[in-house]
Design goal:
The structure is a homodimer.
Chain A (H helix, E strand, L loop, with lengths): L4 H8 L10 E3 L6 E3 L5 E11 L10 H18 L3 E11 L4 H18 L2 E9 L3 E11 L14 E5 L4 H9 L9 H10 L5 H6 L7 E4 L3 H12 L2 E5 L7 H10 L1 H10 L5 E6 L4 H11 L3 E8 L4 E4 L5 E2 L13
Parallel strand pairs in A: 4-5, 9-12
Antiparallel strand pairs in A: 1-2, 3-6, 4-6, 7-10, 7-11, 8-10, 9-11, 12-13
Helix pairs in contact in A: 2-3, 4-5, 8-9
Chain lengths: ~325, ~325
């Protein structure tokens, strides 16, 4: 059976997932037409996933669909934005119905959770590459930026760090997850849950905010560079999952620290806020049923210093992921 | 020398081209923050170009940069939208400084012509793939849609048709362009000029409108399907360039007709308008110094019929380009 480009769009994408009232025209014309609510600014983020680079050849298609959206919603969350619409640029080597069914299910599963509508895109033939652009809103002037951290702020991270890196280590045979931890870790790698609700709740609290995609050191580094400040991180405060705690005996503490600091793919939020907001932050995250850990403090200068609990310097082995470094 | 992802962005993309006042935050944060003017709707279009599919391996990088933007501006033009911002998803096999310089020059050359700002994107490593999303505005309710053609409307096309197809034929050795026609044809293939001004001028005149990217038959077919109407095209009215006229002796009239009807990659506008607007349309295009040709009429039914000047049926060999047809 031959499947045309239009048939692919009709069967797997058009009319699927939430249908929003602010979409004047979605899929099916030369372009989509949309209404941004009055008094709001538009927030847009674009991320590309490439087979063999961002996900393995045998990644479940539903995981690819989920993750392509999740990484973008995570970027919107880091701005404090409410997600609304997505576009999809999908390049496929062949019409693979089973793959498309899985991909579509993963994409629209997460889209449904967050009420976002697919409004357009392009389907082309070529090496498997997925580009999603997410669009959201913030009230005028309310977006959170990387450059707003101030000396004296606390540094926080949501959730736990290093799980995706640990999952990758397990997939590559470098570590064996015990009991239920294997499934948990795989979900953290393949189906990250973007911190959309946390981002919205932090909009009027956070100073600097960023999502942790390339590792805490690299991404907190963006806040420091943009804000013209330094930071001191207490590595023993880094939030570990039960799976990471269970792995620590086998891998050693230092290996776990490295995963938490620089393995990346966490899709947690890192933010700074003044000490006066500590109680409020605790209440917000308690209500969200989301972990949030104070891991350090913003200071003068420009350096990011890691220390043990007793004040001794901790020297990280590497700082984060860069697609073209050393190339 | 190693070139990092951040260095690529800094050197070839950040701060280049027009910088607009409606961009609250462009490149450099988790997402861009933008202001859509009051009383306007947002119009977005996304297109992907893949090496070996949409452009040959040896395509000049400046042509790839130009065309990746042009095809999207053409989609916005077909909605009657004024372009404003673009994002770029660029997947590259390696850090190739010369390629990036050319690509950036081509992209920002056309961006400068139309006053559009690059506001964000993603640079990844993988097979060469370029995804551009263009964002523009229309006054609320003023966008032109495919579904607005009415029985009795005239059918028009801007510019000339089939030149990109003829250029491809020449590149593949199937035809030799004489004199200055070679350069003209190559420019039509590699550096199409999106009909932005025409699209804006037609916003209050056109009924149905579409851009001609897959060939006149396929794209006019979209207007017919969306509007629930048929059309009759007089093939002898199809606008040929001097280069096409010069090729006709060698290729034969029928071959030229086929190129004009279905080779695609024209990036002209096809639109319908009532006969009462003929004078106005003539004045608009005269002022724009842009060719515009009446090629047929909208009728009842759902068929697209092609006829010779004497009324005999013309049967096209194929209807347009589909990435997955026959796969």
């Amino acid at each position: 059976m031959s499947v045309s480009e239009f048939e692919i769009i009709r069967r797997f994408f058009a009319g699927k997932g939430p249908q929003r009232r602010d979409v004047v025209r979605g899929i099916g014309d030369d372009a989509a037409v949309l209404r941004v609510p009055e008094g709001h600014e538009l927030v847009v983020s674009l991320d590309t996933l490439v087979k063999g680079v961002h996900f393995p050849d045998n990644a479940p298609p539903a995981a690819v669909g989920h993750k392509a959206l999740a990484v973008n919603l995570s970027d919107l969350a880091a701005m404090g934005a409410e997600p609304a619409w997505i576009t999809l640029g999908l390049t496929l080597p062949e019409r693979d119905i089973a793959w498309l069914e899985g991909f579509s299910a993963g994409l629209f599963g997460l889209a449904g959770t967050h009420g976002v509508q697919l409004i357009g895109g392009d389907t082309t033939r070529g090496p498997l590459t997925v580009t999603v652009q997410a669009h959201g809103f913030v009230p005028r002037g309310a977006a959170c930026y990387r450059g707003a951290a101030r000396v004296g702020d606390d540094v926080y991270v949501t959730g736990t760090l290093g799980d995706a890196g640990l999952a990758l280590l397990a997939l590559n045979g470098g570590f064996r997850a015990e009991g239920g931890h294997g499934g948990y870790l795989r979900a953290r790698l393949e189906r990250p849950a973007p911190r959309v609700a946390a981002g919205l709740a932090l909009r009027d609290i956070a100073h600097g905010m960023v999502d942790v995609s390339d590792g805490l050191l690299a991404d907190l580094g963006h806040i420091l560079a943009a804000s013209g400040v330094g930071a001191r991180i207490e590595v023993e405060r880094l939030p570990f999952s039960d799976a990471m705690l269970a792995a620590r005996a086998e891998l050693g503490e230092r290996h776990c620290m490295e995963l938490a600091l620089s393995a990346g793919d966490d899709y947690e939020l890192c933010f700074t806020a003044p000490p006066a907001r500590r109680g409020e932050i605790e209440r917000v995250f308690s209500a969200l049923d989301c972990r949030c850990t104070r891991v350090g403090v913003i200071g003068p200068g420009s350096r990011l210093v890691c220390v043990w609990g007793d004040g001794r310097a901790y020297r990280p082995a590497r700082r984060g992921y860069d697609h073209f470094a050393g190339g």
